[in-house]
Specification:
Elements: H1 4-16, H2 34-121, H3 124-127
Amino acid sequence: MMTAAAARVRSRMSDVSPPPLCEFIEYVDTEQTPEDIAYVYRVAQRARRHWLDMEAEERREEERRKMRQEEEERRCKYEAERKQREEAERRRKQEEDRLAHEAREAERERMRERARRARAAGPDAFRKGKYPRCTQ
């Protein structure tokens, strides 16, 4: 039993090509019309353009990836240099603070020693000085 659509297809095919050998195998026309050739050519050109566009996009993406990687490397290098500079500055500042603290402590020790000598000299030494108060 054939449907109406199958009958129409079969009748149309009989005009163009010989009848099918059986229900599942049909004769394929080996000659192509210029329109078919042009269509296949257009499809091939479109596929070629698509392929070239895809390759170009992949190259651009690879270039962008390399640029991002180089930028990341530059940023990491800059960060490392910045940290080294900050560490050197911190060490220099600590050394300055340590030297200032030592100088302050030396001055305080000198003053303490002076005070100890003054206490050891006794209360009479306080009245004696370079210029005596009474000069007669």
